[in-house]
Amino acid sequence: MPYPVVFLLLGNGIDGANNKPLHSSDYDFNDDLLPIGADFWTSLAKNRLSTEGSNSV
Questions:
Q1: Which of 21, 27, 34, 42 has its CA 20 to 30 A from that of 49?
Q2: How far is Cα 22 from Cα 13, in angstroms, rounded to an integer?
Q3: What pTM, to 2 d.p., does this model score?
């Protein structure tokens, strides 16, 4: 049975080590993105749960 999924790319920045490819030895994750990503997923889950039981997929 197929399940709906979501794939999201959250930009990491365009300057300095934040602009490096993910597996680069000098890659630096932009920690300022954590609240933005968490807020997005929280909103998505709340929205989806509020439509539970309706005809939406």
A1: 34
A2: 12
A3: 0.60
